[in-house]
Design brief:
Helices cover 42% and strands 25% of the residues. The model has no long low-confidence stretch (mean pLDDT 94). It binds NADP nicotinamide-adenine-dinucleotide phosphate.
Length: 325
């Protein structure tokens, strides 16, 4: 089979972007022979064009976003992060009729509706698998794998930082020491409130709930892990339980209710066994029953793999459209 060529413009080459570049180099020939598309990288937007980065020649980098956005790429991959610049870049790419892939949960949480409407209007795709739970293919599972079934509930450990801190507290650390260790090991930001106050988990749960249910979200109760003490963990342990930060979306009469809070779980609950920075999601669906997704919810390579899977899906679907259009 002769492979069709797809050109990718990359915005950002930090933790995830550099993983994407490395993964693409490693997987390119397999992707070409398996899917019939050759994925080529065009220019890459960075802030510091002088920094040396592995796997890419310095001439590939630009500090001018328009070099990437207004070039001849088929897919724009947004891995800059943040809301303002990233939002402007994604809007411009969509306006230019480009397919977009992003890992940016914060952007989708603030302006997702507008961006998806924009993509629909222009007949292009907006892939976002990597924006929720990094390497766990939960977006594909909900939108494609479970398309023939009715999801009744979603329950998950969606924030790896909180789970890492609770795991260290189970080992005897205080909250403050566990948070400091999470920061030293790169699992927590210097300003950790989005993670430990439950906001990040809420944003992810909102995205998952909007994919899984046709009804509106009618309530959201959000509590982070700051109030969890060593005594709470010991009391739970004495009863054969553990404490986990659990995000739940369930159908209620008027729509869907969200709860994000520390919960006591019995030791045989699948979420009780999830430790450290891992994520897990339990989906219940009427015909399928219970499904468990477990894995790395962040990190350079797992997140890059989710980004690349979206790029491949877009490349394959546009190939299909061209073949049949
Ligand atoms: N890290 C993870 O494990 C993870 C997991 C899931 C989702 N995500 C999401 O993935 C996205 C990227 O995260 P990351 O951890 O890779 O971020 P990062 O390491 O901070 O990398 C950001 C990249 O974007 C470039 N950049 C930032 N602002 C720019 C601007 N205004 N103009 C031009 N270039 C700019 C930076 O350039 P320089 O290199 O020159 O500074 C850097 O290469 C975020 O939306 C994040 O939420 C990350």
């Amino acid at each position: 089979m002769s492979a069709r060529s797809i050109r990718i413009g990359l915005l950002g080459c930090g933790v995830v972007g550099s993983g994407f570049v490395e993964l693409l180099a490693h997987e390119r020939s397999r992707i070409a022979s398996r899917f019939g598309v050759t994925l080529n990288l065009g220019q890459i937007l960075v802030r510091d064009g002088e920094k040396t980065r592995p796997h890419v020649a310095r001439s590939t980098f630009t500090t001018n976003a328009l070099d990437v956005l207004d070039g001849d790429c088929d897919v724009i991959v947004e891995l800059v992060g943040g809301v303002d610049c990233a939002g402007a870049y994604v809007r411009r790419a969509l306006r230019n009729g480009r397919n977009v892939v992003t890992a940016n949960k914060a952007l989708l949480a603030t302006t997702g509706r507008e961006l998806f409407d924009d993509a629909d209007r222009r007949g292009v795709a907006l892939g976002f698998e990597a924006s929720v739970c990094g390497g766990i293919p939960i977006v594909q599972a909900l939108t494609r794998g479970l398309a023939g079934d009715s999801v009744t509930s979603i329950r998950g450990i969606l924030n790896g930082t909180s789970n890492y801190i609770v795991s260290r507290m189970e080992d005897g650390m205080t909250f403050d020491d566990a948070l400091r260790l999470a920061q030293e090991r790169g699992f927590a930001e210097a300003e950790p409130s989005l993670d430990v106050d439950g906001v990040d988990a809420e944003q992810k749960l909102r995205i998952l709930a909007s994919l899984a249910f046709d009804e509106p979200i009618v309530s959201a109760a959000v509590r982070g892990i700051r109030g969890v003490t060593g005594a709470d963990i010991e009391e739970a342990r004495a009863d054969g339980c553990v404490i986990r930060h659990v995000a739940t979306a369930t159908r209620v009469p008027a729509g869907v209710a969200l709860r994000i809070e520390p919960r006591r779980l019995s030791a045989d609950d699948p979420l009780a066994r999830v430790r450290d920075e891992h994520n897990a999601i339990v989906v219940n669906a009427r015909a399928t029953g219970e499904l468990l997704f477990f894995g790395k919810g962040a990190g350079s390579m797992p997140t890059a793999a989710a980004v690349l899977s979206d790029v491949i899906s877009i490349a394959r679907s546009s190939q299909y459209a061209r073949m049949t259009g």
